[in-house]
Every structure is written in structure tokens, then in C-alpha cells.
Amino acid sequence: MGSFRHFQDLPAELRIKIWRASCRPRVVKVWYDADADCCQTASRPPAILHVNREARAEALHQGWYRRAFRTRSRPRDHYIYFSPALDLLYIPRHGLMGYDDAARDFAVHVRDTVEHVRALAIDHVRSDAIRPWEPYNKLMLLFSFPHIRETILVVAPSSLPGSTPSPPLPASYDRRVFLPRSQKTIEDGGATISSLSPTLPGAVLPDKGDVELVDPQGDALVIMGIIDNVIESFSRVIEDMTGANHGGTASTFDEGADDLRIRTNASIPSLIPKAIAHQQQQCHWQQQRHRQAALAGSRAVDAKDEVRTQIKGY
User: Fold this and answer.
1) What's the CA gap between 161 and 155, in Å, rounded?
2) Which residues in the chain show pLDDT less than 70?
3) Residue 105: which of 37, 173, 151, 154 has the closest Cα?
4) What single-letter DSSP state applies at residue 159?
5) How confident is the model at residue 204, as a pLDDT?
6) Where are the domains of the chain?
7) pTM greater than 0.85 (yes/no)
8) For the purposes of burial, counting CB atoms within 10 Å of the CB of 54, is it exposed (0-12), middle (13-18) or buried (19 or more)?
């Protein structure tokens, strides 16, 4: 199909509608780095911001995308573009401590963001890997977003019963490893070092890729059982906290009680099970690249042997 060369000749109103229709929902993977006091992301910036000046101006002026995930120490030079109407925020389990205090206090550290998020995804953690503080911190994280309409629990294949537990992280992994992202690198979509990236010399930076959440494969009853267990753990956390704050008799929280961000008569949001699709696809691509590299290597060896044979023949 040939390119359309008369786009600029269209009426401005029609061009704006086309730009608006080109915006696609994204899963924006973000985590807060406490050591750097900034948010890191593995997601690409919106494509419309890099088409031309008009598209970028309309996307920002019309409020389709906004500069979010700023922090107090870096309010101007470090941000991530986010669309409240289209994007889903995915806060993964990050670092050796899992959902730690930094994840729990996401709304405290990150400015002018949580009130604009409508859909949120968090990771499910297996019972043999979860830290004691994580159920509480995850629940507080969910309640820190006041306008959430959809909450998703990301269920990895290793979370299902009968799967092999994830091995512990080797000593060469360090949760503090990161690549500071300036305004230019954020807008250019440069690679970011994950908290689980190896710190060994010559480590390859992971490519930025789109995350897609799909229905998890497996027994539906097992998956829904995981959801029920998570909600039950959240309920126990609420019961423990209400008992601690009100002598074990009341069932609600005061608005300003300690650092609790649970509102009066708060209810646990329903969780939708999803799985990450891009990781499996990336593994498939990596296997293909390894096979191609091995095939190329074997061909090179065969060519060298053939040359040596010819030389010996002379």
C-alpha cells in the first residue's frame, strides 16, 4: 500500500481526529527507585509524541498524555508520559524486598499521578516467596489510588500450583542498579536497567518492549482460587489493622489514623487475573536468535574446514 502524501492538506479538525484515533492503550510498567528518588520504566513513550510537531502539540495540549511520575527532588527533569483515559499502570514486584515500604508509599513519593490513574496492575506473589510485609503493603498501594476503576492481578506461570519455585537471586544482582533517565532519554525511549539486571561487567541492557496483559493459561478454577486467596489475605490485613486501631471492635478506619490510607467503609477492589504476554514472545525471539547464531557458527566452522581441505589438496 502506498503512502498518503496529502495528509497536511486535510482540514485541521480531521487531522486532529486522526491523531486522536491513532492513540492506543498501553500497559505502562513503572517502579519507584528509592535510592534515586525517581520512577523508572521499561515502557516505550507514546508513538504519537514522535510523529511530528503537530501530533505532539495536539497530544499534549488536548490532554491525551500528561507528564506524570515526577518526584519531589526531580519535579521537572524526570517524568513519564501517561494517558489517564487509555493507559494502565503496572507496578511490578521489584527488587529483593518485593513490595517494600517504597512501593507502599508510592503515592507519597510520586507527585500528581495517583489521582489520574484509572486502571492498576500488581503482581501476584507465591506463598513460598512472599515477604511478611507484602500483603499489607500491596493493599495500601491499592488504596492509595482514589479513582481506580479496574484492578488487575498479574499471575505468572510460576505462580500456579505444581510449578517450580523461582530460584533465589544470585549475589551478582543488586536492586540499586539503575540508569538515570534524563528528560532527553525519556522522550527518546532509551533503555533502562532493571533492578534485576546483572551488575557483572559487560552486562547487556534489556531492550524496551511493550507489555501486553492477556488471560492466563491454565485451570480457571485454580486461577480464581489464587484471586480468592489474595482477597482473603487482604481481608485479614484489614481485620488486624481495625483491631489494632480500635481495640478490636470497630470495622472501619478513621481518615487520619496513623499512615493508613484506607477510607471509612473501604472495600477491597475486585481483582481481574491477567498474565504478561510479551515475556513469552521475547523468550521465543531469543531462542530463535540463539538458534540462528548457532547455525551461523556451525556454517562458519564448516567453511573453515572446507578451506583447510582445499589448501591441503594443493
Assistant:
1) 11
2) 1-2, 157-209, 243-266, 278-314
3) 37
4) G
5) 32
6) 7-276, 279-314
7) no
8) middle
Number of residues assigned to the chain: 314
The three three-digit cell numbers of residue 100, written as one number: 517494600
In 3D space, the residue among 268, 277, 276, 275 whose CA is nearest the CA of residue 229 turns out to be 268
pLDDT score for 311: 58
CA separation for the pair 180, 40 (Å, rounded)? 8
- CB of 109 within 8 A of CB of 102? yes
- Cell 507514546 sits on residue: 46
CA distances (Å), 79 to each of 20, 60, 185, 227, 249, in order?
Answer: 22, 14, 10, 33, 44
Helix, strand or coil for residue 279?
A: helix
Question: Would you say 106 and 141 are in contact if contact means Cβ atoms under 8 Å apart?
Answer: yes
Element (H, E) at 273: strand 271-276
H or E element at residue 222:
helix 220-246
The phi-psi region of residue 135 (left if phi > 0; otherwise alpha if psi is between -120 and 50; otherwise beta) is alpha
Q: Which residues contact 43 (CB under 8 A, 6 or more apart)?
A: 26, 27, 28, 29, 30, 80, 208, 210, 211
In this prediction, residue 287 carries a pLDDT of 55
Provide DSSP, 4-45. ---GGGS-HHHHHHHHHHT----EEEEEEETTTTEEEE-SPP
Query: Residue 116: helix, strand or coil by DSSP?
Result: helix
